[in-house]
Amino acid sequence: MLTQLEQGTYFLGDHMCLVDVHLAPFALRLSRLPQQFRGWTPPSPQIRWQKWLDALESNPHVRSTMSAPAFYMRSMDDLRKSFQGKGGGPP
Questions:
Q1: InterPro entries recorded for this chain (predicted)?
Q2: Cα separation of 19 and 78, whole Å?
Q3: What span, in angstroms and rounded, lies between the C-alpha atoms of 63 and 56?
Q4: N or C: which end of the chain has fewer CB within 10 A?
Q5: Which residues, in sequence order, are CB contacts of 12 under 8 Å at separation 6+?
């Protein structure tokens, strides 16, 4: 399994599996948000995590379920404003 993880495009090799399907929505959304609001820099393309995200984003089935990046930024901005209005800082 470790060999497949290290060599494959997806979690368990060259084909998507249930692990990819379950984690993809969270991973892809999180990859779009922290840069904007916490100064987080994305991993370099050589890192396994980034290769996996790139594979997910290039998959037409995954792409068809995603909203435009601007949607996530607007949603996060609305959430941040909501927290600030309640006396909290940005999330």
A1: Glutathione-S-Trfase_C_sf, GST_Omega/HSP26
A2: 30
A3: 8
A4: N
A5: 1, 4, 5, 19, 20
Q: Which fold has domain 2-66?
A: Glutathione S-transferase Yfyf (Class Pi); Chain A, domain 2 (1.20.1050)
pTM assigned to the model:
0.65
- The closest of 19, 28, 20 to 67, measured between CA atoms, is 28
List per-residue pLDDT tens for the chain, 91 residues long. 455 556 788 888 889 999 999 999 888 887 777 665 666 666 666 678 888 889 999 999 998 988 887 887 788 778 778 878 776 555 5
Using CA atoms, how far apart are residues 64 and 90, in angstroms rounded to an integer? 30
